[in-house]
Amino acid sequence: MEKLKLFDIAKALGLSKTTVSKVLNNYSDVNQFTRIKVLNYVKKVGFEPNRQASSLRKKETKTIAIILPEINHDFYNSIQEGILSVSQKNDYNLCVAISNESYETEKKLVNQFLGRNVDAIFLSLCNETKNFDHLKAIQEQGKVLVMFDKIEKTINCPKIIVDDRKASFLATEHLIKNGCNNILHFRGGFQPQISIDRYLGYRDALNKYGIPFDKEKVFVCETADENNGFFAAKKVFKSGIKFDGLFAVTDYAAIGAIQFFKSKKIRVPNDVLVVGFSNWKVTRFTSPTISTVDQSAFLMGENIFNTFLEEKLLKSQGDPPGNKILKLPTKLIIRESSKI
């Protein structure tokens, strides 16, 4: 009789192969009913888990590295909280490091963590990263790589993102439906995929509603911070461009723009409607409060760790890295800056 495999057990029980493997490996995130169902069946059919996979598990360090591009960032802080909420239940330790938007630092951190034999690296790319050899090295050493937020599509690994393009479309559409026809876009740099997608979402909305695209209304904010937003708004003012709406790539770019508008007695929202992106806590306390896009950061963190668990199981079974892109939902939050 041919030896049973996980796939056979999963098919017989109407479960996924991942769920069956989690039960056999004693993971905590499987309900008791399913656990008993699987254990009773494997006992009945005399299934024996793969000993090689068991040996591989014993080599684990139970340590995960997280590499973030920025510190003191609400979005990344919430992602960490989401990861921590699941990692603690599975007895994993986390090491968090910051690349400070530096490719050299990012590459150095990857090498350091590989030297410490971490089980996986969760990484959001810095804006400077254009060479990805250090990411390939993670997988060449048999470690799990999960990318999130700022990703590289050509790397064969799981990726967790929000649908930036759709979210930006909805943000721009909101401005249009509230009467804006001359909408500025303060975009990020040309490298991060999130900056590209948010720009494309802005373009999509203009196109749908028959508003001609004007490149003179798009301003690049490389770091997308408060200063960038302030000086982009200053450029707009000096150019004499007509505008009645602004969609900013980040909340801080929006805050900087509003500060400049105030200095020139341009009223928000009376004269110009403004929408940011990320739902930073500060947007609830500015004057006016700022409309924005919430990115489900905590949920992203949970999904990052759960994806790692799935990848780890696939790896133990000899399967290649997954290449799925999981897009999480966003929510447009309407506040004073875009209410008319």
What structural class results from the helix and strand content? Answer: alpha/beta
Q: What is the strand tally?
A: 12
Distance separating the two termini: 73 Å
Q: State the low-pLDDT regions, or none.
A: none
Give me the strand/helix succession. Answer: HHHHEHEHEHEEHEHEHEHEEHEE
Notes on the structure:
The protein has 340 residues and is of the alpha/beta class. The protein has three domains: 6-49, 434 Repressor (Amino-terminal Domain) (Orthogonal Bundle); 57-160 and 297-327, Rossmann fold; 164-295 and 332-338, Rossmann fold (3-Layer(aba) Sandwich), CATH 3.40.50. It is built from twelve helices and twelve strands. The chain has a six-stranded parallel β-sheet with strand order 2-1-3-4-5-11, sandwiched between helices. The longest helix has 20 residues, at 297-316. It is elongated, with a radius of gyration of 23 Å.
Summary tags:
340 residues, alpha/beta, 434 Repressor (Amino-terminal Domain), Rossmann fold, 3 domains, six-stranded parallel sheet, four-stranded parallel sheet, 12 helices, 12 strands
Helix-strand blueprint:
Blueprint: H1 6-13, H2 17-24, H3 32-45, H4 51-58, E1 63-68, H5 74-87, E2 93-98, H6 103-115, E3 120-123, H7 133-140, E4 144-148, E5 159-162, H8 164-177, E6 183-187, H9 193-208, E7 218-220, H10 226-239, E8 245-248, H11 251-263, E9 273-275, E10 292-294, H12 297-316, E11 325-328, E12 331-333
Parallel strand pairs: 1-2, 1-3, 3-4, 4-5, 5-11, 6-7, 6-8, 8-9
Antiparallel strand pairs: 10-12
Helix pairs in contact: 1-2, 5-12, 8-9, 10-11
